[in-house]
Write a structure and sequence with these properties.
By secondary structure, the protein is mainly α. It has helices at residues 59-71, 80-91, 110-128, 189-206, 211-215, 231-243, 256-259, 264-281, 292-295, 319-322; strands spanning 49-51, 96-97, 100-101, 298-302, 308-312, 324-326. Bound molecules: CU-O-CU linkage.
Length: 338
């Protein structure tokens, strides 16, 4: 059976790696009608939101919107802290089905969960600056121009800056997708760019010839599958997280419960989401999963008006229907067959 929305009434303690408890509650405010959450319907839209590259200009709006989100009362489900807590609740064991914890990583829920998550995040930001076309910038690390932390995130004393980041991603340092967490990072720029492009080629093409390889393994109610990550999730998604954090503490980007506390998380995931669109466009067997258990899996989110909704995986397959797409950018990895 598909994964249903979690029981909102029984949201509990979240655990960091190992068995250490997160010392605050990750649970969203419980909606009054918690056992009768309506299905989400796409609101009418006038113009597509077009997500731009994060290396480009676009800074002022994004900074301002993020600042306003950070200034909301922490109890507001749209506040920055509550938005980060969504990732904690869905990935650190706050929700359970019987003895199994809900986990949206390492299985086929990875892409659709993060797509819906960003969808509402973007709408909330747009609402806070009164711009219904606001679109989240994407960190295009699949292009040599994007293999550095976009400068807008590296400016101290702005809402997009996170002081807990690692020097591995600061001051224009090239990011290395082979990074596992502890080793020194390579400084040979040319070699690193080539390796990175080859990694993307593998994750998008060689190793992702059919849907379950790309999306990750089946995850059905009662199966507790949390070891079958898809190709992009494994690399570059996870190394980019690990590169972004302080080596010892693994704070913010290095841990599920805290990743959403770094504003770059959302731009990183926008590119992960863009990879889904590009992969489907490559043709052949590269298409969405057709199994009902995937299509009918559900998540819970608050929208930009603080209204609670349930959403289906099957309703997030076409980003244009959802009201957004991506500004095109070159994909040089397509020529980087190993
Ligand atoms: Cu939910 Cu990048 O992880």
């Amino acid at each position: 059976a598909p994964i249903p929305i979690p029981n909102l009434k029984s949201c509990g303690k979240a655990l960091k790696e190992g068995s250490i408890e997160v010392d605050y509650s990750c649970c969203p405010p419980t909606p009054a009608e918690w056992n009768n959450i309506p299905y989400y319907k796409f609101p009418p839209m006038s113009k597509l939101r077009r997500r731009p590259r994060a290396q480009q200009e676009y800074i002022a709006k994004y900074q301002l919107a993020t600042r306003r989100m950070m200034d909301l009362n922490e109890k507001d489900p749209r506040s920055f802290k509550q938005q980060a807590n969504i990732h904690c609740a869905y990935c650190n064991g706050a929700y359970k089905f019987g003895d199994d914890v809900l986990q949206v990583h390492f299985n086929w829920l990875f892409f659709p969960f993060h797509r819906w998550y960003l969808y509402f995040y973007e709408r909330i930001l747009g609402k806070l600056i009164d711009d219904p076309t606001f679109a989240l910038p994407y960190w295009n690390w699949d292009h040599p121009d994007g293999m550095r932390l976009p400068p807008m995130f590296d400016r101290r004393n702005t809402s997009l800056y996170d002081p807990r980041r690692n020097s591995h991603v600061r001051n224009g340092t090239i990011i290395d997708f082979r990074f596992g967490g502890d080793e020194e990072v390579s400084t040979d720029v040319e070699q690193t760019v080539t390796n990175n492009l080859t990694s993307v080629y593998r994750a998008m093409i060689t190793n992702a010839a059919c849907p379950l390889q790309f999306f990750g393994g089946r995850y059905l109610l009662g199966t507790n599958n949390t070891k079958d990550a898809g190709t992009i999730e494994k690399m570059p998604h996870t190394p980019v997280h690990m590169l972004s954090v302080a080596r010892l503490w693994r704070m913010d980007m290095g841990n599920f419960y805290s990743a959403g506390l770094d504003p770059v998380f959302y731009s990183h995931h926008a590119n992960v989401d863009r990879m889904w669109n590009i992969w489907k466009g490559l043709g052949g067997k590269k298409r969405d999963i057709k199994e009902e258990d995937w299509l009918n899996s559900e998540f819970f989110f608050y929208d930009e008006d603080e209204k609670p909704y349930r959403v289906r995986v099957g309703d997030c397959l076409d980003t244009r229907k959802m009201g957004y797409d991506y500004a095109p950018a070159d994909i040089p990895w397509i020529n980087c067959r190993p």
